[in-house]
Specification:
Order of helices and strands: HHHEEHHHHHH
Protein name: GntR family transcriptional regulator
Distance between the termini: 34 Å
Helix content: 55-70%
Keywords: DNA-binding, Transcription, Transcription regulation
Radius of gyration: 19 Å
Structural class: mainly alpha
Strand order of the largest sheet: 1-2
Largest sheet: 2 strands, antiparallel
Number of strands: 2
Strand content: under 5%
Number of helices: 9
Pfam families: FCD, GntR
Oligomer: single chain
Shape: globular
């Protein structure tokens, strides 16, 4: 089901559930009961059903026998594969941005990262970080790459809140952004790609440590796997 096929209420329910997933209010393994969701979101069950179908199409929701729809649980291999693909795709975005970004776009990215440096690890910073990566992707000027990254990002949301909730990670991420931007400003495509890959790999290491520290919900996150 595409956005065009959903009703306005279905789109609203979908966006609200995505926001809850991004904020960590919905977590892997959580069941999605239509009646409860309809009551919480203030809509009927029909738009909730539409939203769940779209989340299933996105790969975020799975149907578990005798349980119904639940947020997917990613195993260790999937988490590693997601970050590997993110490094490839966002590294490519940085490389293309070094060739295609206008001076105004680069200045905007610099301003955004300067603002990010003053915020620390607060919710406003998490939003600004997403906007920074989106602006860099826009500067790459490749619609097919944009689609691929957006698809990947939906699956990454299953992992919950950003790694920037870690204070040290928030500070390091800003410095890593500046490294990417220095390369883009110098029009050094290879260095921009390498810097962005290193940035994503640093986030991956923080994510893996966080997953290891989580209480095991089931055997997927058992200490033997992570």
């Amino acid at each position: 089901m595409s956005e065009e096929d959903r009703t306005p209420q279905g789109n609203s329910a979908y966006n609200q559930l995505m926001d809850e997933l991004r904020a960590g209010r919905l977590n892997p393994g959580d069941r999605l009961r239509e009646t409860e969701l309809a009551e919480r979101l203030g809509v009927s069950r029909t738009p909730v059903r539409e939203a769940i179908r779209q989340l299933e199409a996105d790969g975020v929701v799975a149907h578990i026998p005798r349980q119904g729809a639940s947020i997917r649980t990613l195993d260790y291999a999937e988490v590693m594969e997601l970050y590997e693909m993110r490094a490839v795709l966002e590294g490519t975005a940085a490389r293309l941005a070094a060739r295609a970004a206008s001076d105004i776009e680069i200045e905007e990215l610099q301003d955004m990262n300067q603002s990010l440096a003053t915020l620390g690890n607060v919710p406003e910073a998490f939003t600004l970080n997403r906007q920074f990566h989106a602006a860099l992707l826009d500067a790459a000027k490749n619609r097919f790459l944009t689609r691929s990254i957006h698809t990947l990002q939906k699956t990454l949301m299953i992992l919950g809140p950003t790694t920037l909730t870690d204070p040290a990670r928030a500070e390091n991420a800003v410095e890593e952004h500046f490294g990417v931007l220095d390369a883009i400003k110098a029009r050094d495509a290879a260095l921009a790609e390498a810097a962005m890959r290193a940035h994503i790999e640093a986030a991956q290491r923080v994510r893996v440590r966080a997953l290891r520290a989580q209480p095991s919900r089931d055997e997927t996150y058992d200490g033997d796997l992570l």
